[in-house]
Amino acid sequence: MATQLKWVGQSVLAVEKGRSLTEVLPGVPGALRPGVQALTFEVLRHLGAARALAKQLAQRAPAPPALALLHSALAILVGDEGRARYADHTLVDQAVEAAKQSRDTRMQAGFLNACLRRFLRERASLLQAIESDPVARWNHPEWWVDRVKADHPDHWQSVLNASQTPGPMVLRVNRRKQTREAYRMVLSSQGLDALPLGDDGLVLTKPVPVEQLPGFAQGSCSVQDGAAQIAAGLLLGGREWSGRDRVLDACAAPGGKTAHLLEQSSATVLALDLDPRRCQRIHDNLQRLGLSAEVKAADAALPADWWDGQLFDAVLLDAPCTASGIVRRHPDARWLRRSSDIPQLALIQARMLEALWPLLKPGGRMVYATCSIFRAEGADQVQAFLARHNDAVEQPSPGHLLPGDARIHGEFNDNVSGGYDGFFYARLDKALP
User: Fold this and answer.
1) Which PANTHER family does the entry link to (predicted)?
2) N or C end of the chain: which has fewer CB within 10 A?
3) Which of 115, 279, 321, 371 is catalytic?
4) What is the largest CA-CA distance in the chain?
């Protein structure tokens, strides 16, 4: 366990320096990676409380590597999963051993031991001392808490609480291979229980490694949250699609929504992504599923670089955003983002909407989506677009989906077990002349 904690501390330090876990975790030794990831997620879900406690315990902060290890141990001690997984004194002993394993923290092992043992002795009073700190209470940056309050005044506590709970494992059954019910029976025969969700989804009652999913390598299913699965049906629903119909997936990597579009229709799909390496992931995912699309590495906001001049029948724009709706799956996002990111991303989103709207046929449809709960990236963005374009007609859409068990506004409220990730959807049809 000490070696795991050493890597957890290093991973948390990397996040505190501005690096994402997607970048950091591949550097952890393979045998340790699952445990390190689970513990690091737990730490990041309680990092606000851990930082506040560390300030109570130490008049002067130690060097960043030791402080990150202290934050890690404190977060595990106050987290629900940590309390269930380890006895308090065992965790303290192993955290001290972890400090001794690294040259950067060896000299602070005694300091770490003193702080953690004091926390065990004075837990109640120390926790009481940080109760009024909103960052410690909600384990999100204060600006984030304030924005959620402003954007969702009736649900803000539910939203923040949901972000502390890991999301369920949701599958999307490849309907080109078999029906959802048939695959559900296959899962059941393997001792894996699942509940239906949406058109093609199954929510597993217990997550498992993808290698344990029957037929995964052969393309029977994909892992995709229920909120993300809404995109294809919203874009394609209500009409038949043939190979003559052209569909653009403008920000496609890693290819989950592209694949779903192809599973649900016979349309010809062009998938774009700015990063060539992420385009390779689209290729890999489509190949596993037995699907094909044209994939280009290009900036969707610069059509002159990639567009052939033929209008599209439908466009899916899953725009770059803060990822504020998926922090229960990516708990580092809350600590990596800054409030100044929101207006900058909103400008990028508006620029992409303006660039892609002229590429849509009259009578065509666009779905604008973000995995964000912030109105500036969702409802406000769409209302501003509608005010600029009198040929855009908003159709019934989910709007803001709130994460977890928070209520979803409108007719799309499915009260699913574990709830959706946070998302925003709007379907915009282009009026005929």
Assistant:
1) NOL1_NOP2_SUN FAMILY PROTEIN _ ANTITERMINATION NUSB DOMAIN-CONTAINING PROTEIN, NOP2 YEAST -RELATED NOL1/NOP2/FMU SUN DOMAIN-CONTAINING
2) C
3) 371
4) 75
Domains within the chain, CATH numbers bracketed: 2-135 (1.10.940.10), 170-223 (3.30.70.1170), 230-430 (3.40.50.150)
Quickly count: other Cβ atoms within 10 Å of residue 409's Cβ.
16
Cα–Cα distance measured from residue 419 to residue 408, given in angstroms and rounded to the nearest whole number: 9
Q: Does the annotation list 255 as a binding residue?
A: yes
273 is in an annotated binding site: yes
Q: How many angstroms separate the CA atoms of 46 and 376, rounded?
A: 27
Residue with tokens 């109640």: 124
Strands 360-370 and 312-318: parallel
Please name which of 169, 149, 167, 45 lies closest in space to residue 373, comparing C-alpha atoms. Answer: 149
User: Is 303 annotated as contributing to ligand binding?
Assistant: no
Counts of helices then strands in the chain (DSSP H, E) = 19, 11
Q: How far is CA 104 from CA 7, 23, 313, 330, in A?
A: 12, 21, 57, 27
Instruction: Please check if 299 is assigned to a binding site.
Output: yes
- pTM, entire model: 0.92
Helix, strand, coil percentages in the chain from 3-state DSSP, rounded to 5: 50, 15, 35
Torsion of CA 212, 217, 219, 222, to 10 degrees: 50
335 torsion bin: left (phi>0), alpha (psi -120 to 50), beta (else): alpha
Straight-line distance from the first to the last Cα atom of the chain, in angstroms, rounded to the nearest whole number = 67
User: Vertex 327, ends 92 and 342: CA angle to 5°?
Assistant: 125
371 has catalytic annotation: yes
Instruction: From first to last of the 433 residues of the chain, give the pLDDT tens digit.
Output: 899 999 999 999 999 999 999 999 999 999 999 999 999 999 999 999 999 999 999 989 999 999 999 999 999 999 866 566 778 999 999 999 999 999 999 999 999 999 999 999 999 999 999 999 999 999 999 999 999 999 999 999 999 999 999 999 999 999 999 999 999 999 999 999 999 999 999 999 999 999 999 999 999 999 999 999 999 999 999 999 999 999 999 999 999 999 999 999 999 999 999 999 999 999 999 999 999 999 999 999 999 999 999 999 999 999 999 999 999 999 999 999 999 999 999 999 999 999 999 999 999 999 999 999 999 999 999 999 999 999 999 999 999 999 875 444 433 344 455 578 999 999 999 999 8
Residue that has been written with the tokens 């315990």 in this structure: 57
Cα 82 to Cα 46, 52, 241, 311, 314: the distances in Å are: 10, 18, 50, 54, 47
